[in-house]
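Incident log, structure service

09:12 report received: a user says their structure output differs between two submissions of the same chain.
09:20 pulled the input from the user's history:
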Amino acid sequence: MINSVIKGSGSYIPKNVVYNAHFVDYEFYDEKGERIDKPGEEIIKKFQEITEIEERRYIDQNILNSEIATIAAQKALEKSGVDKEALDYIIVAHNFGDIDPVSRQIDIMPSMSAKVKHNLGIKNLKCRPYDMTFGCPGWVESMILGHQFIQARLAKNILVIGSDTLSRAVDPHDRTAMIFADGAGAVVLSAEESDEKYGILAYNTLSYTGDELRYLENGPSLKSGYVGSNKNIRMKGRKVYEFALKNVPNALKETMEITDLDIDDLSKILLHQANAKMDHAMIERFYKLYNRAVPEGVDPMTVQKLGNTSVSTIPIMYDLIENHLLGKHQFSKGDHLLMASVGASMNINALVYKYR
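09:34 re-ran on a clean worker, output below:
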């Protein structure tokens, strides 16, 4: 049988640490466009209590999203031992492409994946660049797509990248600006023949485009007269929270049921992270569906120190654990990992992966 296996991983975490105190003098407005008349310290304290986010990372002014995606890709290729000219696809998940640091103009032509292929110096004309815009679940969906290519014998080696620079896509007058951050993560997904089944075992995607469509969208600043970008992330936080708690746990259970695994067989859940309170609640509800308590150490977290890094959250987390850089978390041969995400549009997806 053909298995879809991660052969190597890499990540880029910006060096610029932005603490919550950075926002203390910001002028925040509500959805009615009215100034929130509370001290900055009070707003930040409440924010941290809800999200657990203490700090996040922003890229330097002179670097672009496609460049940090390339750095993560280079690391993944080096770890994998796969020749860059042997890549059949480069799939890059993102939401805004490259964003000019001054004008905040979004640039997706040439595509992100084409830029990464160019930056890597790949000459192979049959290596196809493919962009995935699927909200925060984009990297997981890219992995699912790559797996489908491999299973259909359309590809042997695929570079799968998640990269976003959301610090350039936020409204500085919206409290949700404190959630978002920058980063890139990548893996090389390869075909491997074996009598044993491992790698990606199952996957599942649900797309909600009814009233949920605009829970996350682009829009003007909450402050009238703001002279920055007219296309900023707008998030209905309460709606997203309620949607995630209602729908994600069942979607995870549905994914597990595609396999012959029980929840006790899971070693790690690599969950996209935007709000620690929401993440904890989703995992607790998932385990409650099996009448189980959440095992200690099953849910590694990065949001407290890295913020919401969008499509790069899961590949960054995977790479950190792979390199023993996320506390005591580690992978062992035979571990079953559940990778899952929820985000804009609204989309939910998940995959079950047997570590080799």
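09:41 both user submissions now match this output. Likely a transient worker issue. Closing.
09:42 reviewer note: The helical segments are 40-51, 65-80, 112-120, 138-151, 237-258, 276-288, 303-306, 313-322. The first strand starts at residue 2 and ends at 12.
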